[in-house]
């Protein structure tokens, strides 16, 4: 949602690609409309507080918010991206460890949706899947990060691991970013 050119390339990727958009960004609404119009599934990429306290950008949720502030922020974030079918966390290594806040999120998702949750697994200490189960929110966890290393060969190798995992288990979730290197690999494969 921050870069029109990269977002348009992601929307144009062939195949069943789900696109996740940051809330309240300059191009997220238009790109989400285009993605939906081309048959792609749309998710909200919800900025969540991380252990390193990295800058969240607009629409971020933190541990210091009251329940009302948290729910209001999530509602506005969901409304800022049209055609949302699910939510995944942007960062969130701190917030996904906290049952209260994750419970608030699942409650908001059920009220807005129902929606599904994809845990990006930015921490091994995440409790998001168990909180999703407790709130009857369909969920999956990321199996492979495609582009922790922004080298085309490394991205291609991660993509191959994703395909192998999907073949072995019947499905797999890979997460990548709209980096030029990632988009170039995905356009080819």
Head-to-tail CA distance between termini: 24 Å
Beta strand %: 15-25%
Strand segment count:
7
Radius of gyration: 16 Å
H/I helix tally: 7
Structure class: alpha/beta
Which oligomeric form is depicted? single chain
In short:
This protein has 189 residues and is of the alpha/beta class.
What does this protein look like?
The longest helix is centred in the C-terminal third of the chain and has 18 residues, at 152-169. The chain has a 5-stranded parallel beta sheet. Strands 6-7 form a two-stranded parallel ribbon. The protein has 189 residues and is an alpha/beta fold. Helix 3 (67-80) links the parallel strand 2 (41-48) and strand 3. It is built from 7 helices and 7 strands. It has helices spanning 4-11, 28-37, 67-80, 99-112, 128-134, 152-169, 180-188, and strands at 18-21, 41-48, 84-91, 116-119, 139-141, 144-145, 174-175. The mean pLDDT is 96.
What's the structural blueprint in terms of helices and strands?
Blueprint lengths: L3 H8 L6 E4 L6 H10 L3 E8 L18 H14 L3 E8 L7 H14 L3 E4 L8 H7 L4 E3 L2 E2 L6 H18 L4 E2 L4 H9 L1
Parallel strand pairs: 1-2, 2-3, 3-4, 4-5, 6-7
Helix pairs in contact: 1-2, 3-4, 4-5, 6-7
Overview features:
5-stranded parallel β-sheet; single chain; alpha/beta; 189 residues
């Amino acid at each position: 949602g921050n870069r029109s050119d990269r977002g348009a390339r992601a929307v144009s990727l062939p195949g069943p690609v789900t696109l996740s958009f940051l809330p309240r960004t300059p191009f997220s609404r238009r790109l989400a409309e285009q993605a939906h119009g081309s048959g792609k599934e749309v998710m909200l990429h919800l900025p969540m507080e991380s252990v390193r306290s990295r800058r969240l950008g607009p629409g971020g949720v933190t541990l210091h918010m009251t329940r009302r502030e948290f729910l209001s922020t999530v509602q506005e974030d969901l409304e800022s991206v049209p055609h949302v079918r699910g939510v995944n966390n942007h960062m969130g290594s701190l917030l996904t460890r906290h049952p209260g806040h994750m419970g608030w999120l699942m409650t908001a998702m059920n009220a807005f949706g129902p929606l599904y949750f994809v845990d990006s697994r930015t921490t091994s200490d995440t409790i998001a899947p168990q909180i999703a189960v407790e709130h009857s929110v369909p969920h999956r966890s990321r199996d492979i990060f495609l582009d922790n290393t922004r080298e085309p060969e490394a991205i291609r190798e991660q993509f191959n691991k994703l395909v192998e995992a999907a073949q072995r288990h019947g499905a797999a979730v890979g997460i990548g970013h709209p980096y030029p290197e990632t988009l170039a690999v995905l356009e080819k494969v």
